[in-house]
Specification:
Helix content: 25-40%
Shape: globular
Strand content: 5-15%
CATH architecture of the largest domain: 3-Layer(aba) Sandwich
Distance between the termini: 28 Å
Number of domains: 2
Strand order of the largest sheet: 9-8-7-10-11-12
Number of helices: 11
CATH topology of the largest domain: Rossmann fold
Largest sheet: 6 strands, parallel
CATH superfamily of the largest domain: Glycogen Phosphorylase B
Structural class: alpha/beta
Number of strands: 12
Length: about 375
């Protein structure tokens, strides 16, 4: 750390490591490139650690960096701590032995020709995961982290002030999705559900005559976006695509909408967007197969539906639209949970304690 003119410490950041494959390009094994970049990053990290003499080395994502830096950190004899926030490290496991030419070739490449490109031999004694689901999944993939702690992430709650009337559903309701636009995020399920609700509102004489609104915030592959845009035009819901927005705009976006929908079809490691919406006083309707399911309580702080089930999603959204008390209770309960359990300060405190334990070599 370095001292700022105000007397506060500011991070001393060095961006010196190389990627073996740039972000934005399709990921691949690229064994030779992993090995080359891994050796490069090993040397840089070894020199840097010797110069800085840290008390502990904290390693986050090694996605597309390879494991050279992690190996140099371990070889330095300085205590090393890891946090796993996604599944990427499983991509560094060694190929299993097999008798077919392809399987045998992969095994030889990982263990002999390009040794060092897998996590074989890495010491993950001090590690954390952001959910029990992620820890279980990484264990199943062979990562030796049976003693890893689960430390849930948190959000800066003060940056997501609660709306004036938490849980209030206006007419027409405005639904919101925030996240990447990939097929496994299930945004197509939201669009189908929105059209079902809009069709019902249109055919029901007692329903408001205004159009149901859906805002989709995020970006992704062009092919999937074209599919979503085509679907959006095939019904009566009013669906808008906003692309990427600045992080500073999100608090206002959450407050401007009535219901936050998260239709992911895969096992998400965690769910920060859920917490942001909850802090903002916007009721949440979500799948719950991943780490986010560890803090969602159906009927208490959110409504849950089965993935890839547009009618089930439509039914849950319709419940909120027609039940003001339910929407308000969900919003109140969700905000209280975030304030008590999922603040950024709580997360920082837990991580600091974990790093202190690693630096002192305690409890292992």
């Amino acid at each position: 750390m370095k001292e700022a003119t105000t007397g506060e410490t500011t991070p001393n950041i060095h961006r010196i490591l190389k990627l073996y494959n740039p972000f934005g390009k399709p990921a691949g094994l690229m064994r030779a490139q992993r090995w080359i970049v891994g050796r490069h990053n090993y040397g840089l990290t070894k020199t840097f650690v010797a110069k800085e003499s840290p008390d502990v080395i904290f390693i986050w994502s090694q996605l597309r960096l390879g494991l050279g830096s992690a190996q140099a950190a371990q070889d330095s004899r300085v205590p090393v701590a890891y946090t796993f926030n996604d599944f990427h490290v499983a991509g560094y496991r060694s190929a299993r032995f097999g008798l077919t030419p392809k399987a045998f070739g992969r095994y030889m490449a990982d263990n002999w020709i390009f040794s060092g490109i897998t996590f074989k031999g890495q010491d993950f004694r001090y590690s954390t995961c952001i959910s029990h689901m992620l820890k279980k999944s990484l264990l199943e993939k062979g990562l030796p982290i049976k003693d890893a702690k689960v430390i849930y992430q948190g959000i800066p709650v003060d940056q997501f002030p609660e709306k004036a009337e938490p849980g209030k559903i206006r007419h027409p309701p405005r639904l919101l999705y925030v996240g990447q636009l990939h097929p496994y995020k299930g945004v197509h399920t939201l669009i189908e559900a929105a059209h079902l609700i809009a069709d019902d509102m249109k055919s029901n004489p007692g329903s408001p005559s205004l159009r149901l609104g859906v805002s989709i915030v995020g970006d992704g592959p062009e092919e999937y976006k074209r599919q979503l845009i085509k679907m959006a035009l095939q019904g009566h819901a009013d669906i808008e695509f906003f692309g990427k927005v600045e992080q500073s705009e999100l608090p206002g976006i959450y407050r401007e909408h009535d219901i936050f929908v998260f239709p992911s079809t895969w096992r998400e490691p965690f769910g920060l967007t859920h917490l942001e919406a909850m802090a903002s006083g916007t009721p949440v309707v979500s799948t719950a197969d991943g780490g986010h399911g560890e803090f969602l309580r159906d009927g208490e702080n959110a409504l849950i539906f089965e993935k890839e089930h547009p009618r089930g999603l439509a039914a849950q959204i319709s419940r909120l639209i027609s039940d003001n008390d339910l929407a308000r209770n969900l919003a109140d309960s969700a905000r209280a949970m975030v304030e008590q359990e999922f603040t950024l300060q709580r997360y920082v405190t837990d991580i600091e304690a974990f790093l202190q334990e690693a630096a002192m070599g305690e409890n292992r």
